[in-house]
Amino acid sequence: MLKPHHRPLVAHGTLSFVCVALLFSAFLLSLLVSLSLTIIKTIYLLSVFSTRTGQPATSAATELRFGVWGVCATSVLNAPTFFANNGECFGPMLGYTIPADIVALTDISQGVINAVSQVLLFVLVLHPIAAGLSFITLFSSLFLASHGLTILSLVLAIITAMVTTAVFGIDLALVLVAKSQLPSLEGELQLGVQWGNAPWMGLAAAVLTWMAVIALSARACYCMGVRPSTKFRRSKF
């Protein structure tokens, strides 16, 4: 029986489960974001929409939602809901190319579309990379019984956390840049830019990954109430 000062405050199995749970949740969120619109149409990065009021309801698109793999154009007659998007979607594709005939039917200028598209193209590949790193880190965390693999998981988690945080920062800048460019592009049009749910999911993934880094650090260095087992301590002497 361990003496009180030898008894770990946190069991190894419990801490390992916490690490895996945090990394799995972060991976799931990163995966969903990387498969956003047009693959998962209800997850998107941002939307550009017309704010004009008093206009008759027509089939002309009044909102463009941009995701990692494309864009969806919707009107007031087929407005997207939380569970579906029945608009005209273009993708999955690399980059954002909307047919000219569709643009002509929208209340949003081609200049606005081009400005948003150029910024989005830059971040297109970063989301799948973050999801891939998150999966690799999750897989390595399944072998925390090995101290060496625990250290490897910690290193991978730090890299993943940094990349995921950088992706969220870029998503944040994306919306801010789009908002700052609208006054010079919209002319007489009345447009607005709205956050999508994908950036906030990315933020949650980054926070969960950093929490996993803390847990893995405690597991790797046997600190914060985590101590090696009696068998491990005896093997060192």
From TrEMBL:
InterPro entries: pH-response_reg_palI/RIM9, SUR7/Rim9-like_fungi. It holds the Pfam family SUR7. It comes from the Eukaryota. One of its GO terms (cellular component) is plasma membrane. Keywords: Membrane, Transmembrane, Transmembrane helix. The keyword DNA damage does not apply. The chain crosses the membrane at residues 12-40, 119-144, 151-178, 198-226. This is Pali-domain-containing protein. It comes from Roridomyces roridus.
